[in-house]
Amino acid sequence: MREPLFVKQNADKWARFEESTQKTPDELADSFIQITDDLAYSKTFYPKSKTTAYLNGLASKFHQSIYKNKRENSNRFVTFWRLELPLLFKKHQRQLLYAFIFFITFCLMGALSAKYDTNFVRLIMGDGYVDMTNENIAKGDPFGVYKQGSEAMMFASIAINNIYVSLVTFASGILCSVGTIYFLFRNGLMLGSFQYFFFSKGLGMQSVLVIWIHGTLEIAAIVIAGAAGMVMGNSFLFPKTFGRLESLKKGASEGMKIAIGLVPIFIVAAFFEGFVTRHTEMPVWLSSGILAASLLFLIWYVVLYPNKIYKQTKHATEN
Hints:
- By secondary structure, the protein is an all-alpha fold.
- It has 13 helices and no strands.
- α8 (151-171) packs parallel to α10, α8 packs antiparallel against α11 (244-261) and α10 packs parallel to α13 (284-318).
- Helices cover 81% and strands 0% of the residues.
- The two termini are 21 Å apart.
- The chain folds into 2 domains: 3-70, no CATH class; 88-318, no CATH class.
- The mean pLDDT is 88.
């Protein structure tokens, strides 16, 4: 499409967006999505034109309206998890995919290293943990580590640690995403070698049914935290039409929102690990049901639901 025709088809809509000063959070998000779609099209076909510069400024205006510090209304908390966070997942789905691929690759590296080097698991997990687990296996209780201490204390310590790991993984993205990839590498190696250790003992399926009760949410959240770090790091590396500092501020803001949005997931994962995983004798149907429900929730909330509301809001603004 030629640029004059593109402008003619959208000029009235852009004018309405400029003139409208009072919008609900949902209306702001809808307008912002449509403007960023137009901006992406303009960047692709008219990268150095005045139209692209104009849309860039208009998108920045809406971005500031959505994200600026202000007294939030009573439903702001709900709006964040119902609309804002899923739309960020949709916007940064490429970083989510990259983080997932990196993590799976590092897990495979950890498993293969453990397979071909008998000392690798001890190097990664530590002699104390490996010796304790071997003793538990000999006693017939291979997952006895999850039964140590009180449920409440374990829940609190695990929740705090997981949130800390998530924020560090995100914050490390400031190092041009290299720091985030390093933490994905470290956690991926640990998971891969840890999981292979149990498979090598003939406890592979049992370990999945026990450990992944909490691990499904916990590991997925670490991957998403990695994506948040890459959002920030890549915003500095690839600023596009924004200034590098402006792009970094935008990426840091959006990445932080994703990282903060993971807190409830980590809390639920810590609850499972503190109160549920310790019951290693639970029926297979129950443990597999918890695992499947966690996995289905993640697929729905991170992939399916964001695509659904993106299409809905885009369709609403076009009509």
